[in-house]
Write a structure and sequence with these properties.
The structure is a homotetramer of 363-residue chains.
Chain A (H helix, E strand, L loop, with lengths): L4 E2 L4 E5 L6 E7 L9 H11 L16 E3 L3 E2 L2 E2 L4 E6 L21 H8 L15 H17 L3 E9 L2 E2 L22 H16 L6 E8 L13 H10 L4 E6 L2 H4 L4 H4 L3 E4 L2 E4 L7 E2 L2 E2 L4 E7 L9 E4 L5 E4 L10 H22 L10
């Protein structure tokens, strides 16, 4: 209940500090009999890892993982799946300069207020390092979803004020990994990459937006009234470091429309009930309707910049601080697999939760 | 775990259908010794009730409530507080025309997909009627927060494309209840009211945005990593009927900024550590820092319109449908106390959760 | 999290004080489509109600109930089922004599220590009155179990030192309701009734043991490692007022045996895998094996006696106290349906929880 | 929700199979600032480890542990504490003879029924090997309790039919570790040891009872109505491998008494409210009253015996099976620290949960 567990039936607990020995995760509630594809898990971690391109941090972490339990002869056993990732780049001596300083827009001050005692090295528990554990759990969630044909993909749709030209229904998911910024619109991608390089050169950082789509979701996922599908997706996204906003379907723009413009009329395509438009973003009353789910996630600029800033020490003195080390100039390219992972965890959880909705299903 | 309970230590369970006999709520975890101000609870329900002005639905529901347990001699006893509200406007004969039709952008189809059997009268469980129970719980949460000096207020900042002129730090909360649209900027309010009246006359509906501010929050509320304060606020808001988006602090706009523009430098004002700017929206690393918390919530237009729309019956036939009865042309004026209530429930919960963060506190 | 909710997927929240206006319950997670047999629920409440025979308290409470939500056209809708029972015998004026006195072996002192403010009338929340809400929830759980052929019955096997002559496998459940002490062994029942009448006449009370059997449970219910089926059954029983002990299968006696005496060898009867003996009580490794589940629950004597006892007032003065009013001389006859109800809630919950154990089941 | 997490605020998640690479645990909710005494944790694991005396299994496992997170500069940080123990005695080749056979009174058949796919080596997840992770978590819980002066100790009070001569209030906890059977009554201990040696020599096993006492608990721990202190203690104990029964205070014997014999009258000793007797076992209405808590836990004989038994294969054929390897002839001596650990986890959890019971406490 202290916030390090997510999910109801597919339940992920994560742990670990940026500069501790390991980070890791435990999944409780993964159904037995699932083939655990280790190569797929590694490939997902590789999409998130530092140092993967010129526009990410140059820190090197291989993020090799180890499964400790819950898998036997290649398949899940229904018991907890624990996984570890070694922190192999723990250069703790780098951090003496910030030990007593509250970095602007970081969590140093709030952790100190809350706990009184904190691991200040690299942000400790508040570092985005912990998201590697989420990607590991998300990869296993994706394996469950694949068994049901559910497909999730995210991509960068905006960097600073540079917005992708294509609409969400125009993109081809195969284009996402074709460039290092993970924007499936080549022209926009080139501009974004150039912009991030300029930002990096100036010692600054910039924010961005990630869009995500979920296809082939069956109707019926989501729970009234608090655990609406989009409410849990929203919480999942907002829990990712640096996220400032979430909107799904028509989103904030939809609030400008009239009901007659916004409503999605039902129709039948073959034997399948569909809607003619999809402002609802695949969710009505908090429950999936079988249409595509899509949403946007806003990320603020990374707080660590190379410029000097004013701050306060833990003993309350005014001080100056400037970033050292190797940091991402823009977080969104590496956050794409994190967004997908959290979406996968939510969907897998609701898939399991929907197995007892009807009396007929439990016989 | 079926989605009708919210919160960890201050835990609210809600129940009831739009046309059942009652809706209600149970709070488990309210500390003992809190004076339960019944007049205040009623005044909060009155702010949400139907029929309160010319721009809301003309349905009449008095929303009188009854406390069944957990309060003795005017004070909470620490045991569950159950409260009921009578549904006194159950005109179920109105609903035969929609019994077998899936209303566009309502939850009829998705509930049918999920459960197979549903109360179709007035939307049943998916109706926003259930939010009255949230307001009752929220009023009690506000009573706890008042004991700590924490103040929450929300207001309408946008209707359709009409945006309030004032910035969030320019408004005076005392102006919110001065007009029926609950916008604390009189000039903007008049335009909004006029626009909603036009929308209503045309048989259409329109969306809008509610902004909310929380003042005097102590530093330290929120839990890493999944239960960040803004993640739970986001989930709480997204769980309200018709909500499509949530952003806090700098929000989606903040994703366009550079780190050097966005970072909030620390400074000291008297003995208090503050930030010079507040793009963080009072939350860093998911934990409150003592500055004002502020966020926006986007609502889609009400789905029930008086115009004819295409739809499908539960047996899969194409059909036509048009709204009957008395519905809100714009949901945001009445949703203001709902937003405040859910915010209060989240804050009360994290206030309790923070009582065991430090060893020193539990002695 | 304050202890008034039980269960994971079939989740029961209860509320209400002995002398408040109502007690009640909310079930979240009852699958949709279940026929809610109101007569059956009433008949279960009647088995628990006061005043039903000469050996129970002579208080009269009809315990009529009302369903407020979650049921439409006679069937569950999958949304929360709220139910109320009116407290029609609230004679609060009886309680001034105990307002400031801590009754021996009651919860007056501990509630005061914990909460500082309590409803002292009739024990308030600590009264066994709340178990009526459990019986209502348990009746609905039984309706789910009936759909799966699972049968639960409990009975009085001991009153004071008077133990039933028959072994648990010798009894016929049809004999349970044939006498007012609910012991399915007529000779023993007569002795027990006579003994309780003597105890009552002397102004004293006496304890007893209830045994319970569960038949036709499928193999596979229960979750490793903390939520073993018998661990949750044990918690459920120990949460009932006045319970001091729980044992299942061979129980405390089993701890005296050797492995070679205690082990249950497997064999095949027709196509079904069974065990030759059943010291395991139908549960191995915390998971049901398809054999009969059976367990014993020990109840202490009712604390309210008509004899004078020493006590302390809330201001710490020595005082004398003696019981007034109408109380049960022995709680076990009326506790039989409570034991069954809690067992039914546990079984229904694990039945739902087992629906996602295997990947094959969730497709 | 799949049963591998225990506790509400002090929350322990465990993982690992008998013959996997590691077993481990994650504690979420340990308050920040607690000194983590590594030597003490190791000493607790040593009390549970195999091979410690002639009356335990001769398997050798050193049970060295490693803390991966949540501790910085020797103190807890409030973030999750993950700990690992290496399984250094994985001789998996020993298990081919039981791969397809359901061992009598083991969990092979029930795991197979539930999951379809299981790690059959050494019982996999159902092995008592997992209790080492509980002891690690329990040691940290004890460190919290020590800060509050709460003291927990358990001991063997019965082996087979050999019962300790001393009453629970006559023992001296310092005598517990003076002999290898952990019975604080030397005469009884010698008999028990001799008996276990005979049992071992005959290739058989025997059950026993562990008693536990908790001293210096403040009044007010425990939550009505389902989460009574003794209900959670009961669940905690019943979740330990091989446990068949739990009783607290007067227990099963108490059900034979009259109210006038059983009631604990209040009195004042100095300024402290106490009871003259303590049949209540320190708990009234599910909440601690400040008196000593005491309870008994019954363990069945270990299921693995060296004698030939009948069984069934997973394909349903009749077969014979007999134990191989090194197993405990009697589980209770090594289960003493496990009982203490689970009790400590329950008490630490309720200590935290009680910090928000009163409005006055949360200011």
């Amino acid at each position: 209940m202290s916030g390090n567990t997510f999910g109801t039936l597919f339940r992920v607990t994560v742990f670990g500090e940026s500069h501790g020995s390991h980070i890791g995760m435990v999944i409780d509630g993964c159904p037995a009999g699932l083939t655990i594809d280790l190569d797929f898990i590694q490939s997902e971690l590789d999409r998130r890892k530092p140092g993967q391109s010129k526009i990410t941090t140059q820190r090197k972490e291989d993020d090799h993982f180890q499964i400790l339990s819950g898998v036997f002869e290649g398949k899940s056993t229904g018991t907890p799946i624990a996984g570890l990732i070694l922190n192999n780049d723990q250069r703790s001596n780098d951090y003496s300069h910030i030990q007593d300083k509250y970095r602007p827009s970081h969590a140093d001050y709030t952790y100190d207020s809350k706990y009184g005692h904190r691991d200040y090295r690299g942000g400790g528990r508040s570092s985005a390092r912990e998201t590697a554990a989420r990607v590991m759990a998300g990869a296993i969630a994706k394996l469950i979803l694949k068994e049901h044909g559910i497909d999730i993909f995210a991509y960068v749709s905006k960097v600073g004020t540079l917005e992708m030209s294509k609409k969400h229904h125009e993109i081809d998911p195969k284009d996402i990994e074709k460039n290092i910024v993970r924007c499936p619109d080549e022209a926009s991608a080139l501009k974004m990459i150039k912009y991030i390089e300029e930002i990096k050169a100036s010692g600054d950082t910039v924010g961005g937006v990630i869009s995500c789509q979920i296809k082939n979701t069956p109707a019926g996922l989501g729970e009234p009234v608090f655990d609406k599908l989009h409410a849990d997706l929203g919480k999942a996204m907002l829990s990712i470091n640096a996220v400032k906003g979430f909107e799904y379907g028509s989103g904030f723009k939809g609030s400008e429309l009239k009901g007659s413009e916004h409503n999605d009329e039902f129709t039948k395509v073959g034997e399948k009930i569909q809607t003619k438009t999809n402002h609802s973003g695949g969710i009505q009353g908090g429950i999936s309707n079988g249409m595509d789910i899509y949403f946007n996630v806003a990320f603020k600029p990374v707080a660590t910049i190379m410029k000097e800033q004013s701050s306060i020490t833990s003993s309350g003195e005014e001080t100056k601080i400037s970033g050292k080390g190797r940091h991402d100039p823009c977080v969104v390219p590496r956050a794409v697999p994190i967004v997908e992972s959290m979406a996968a965890i939510v969907l897998a959880d609701f898939l399991l939760r929907n197995k007892t909705s009807k009396l007929g299903d439990i016989k």
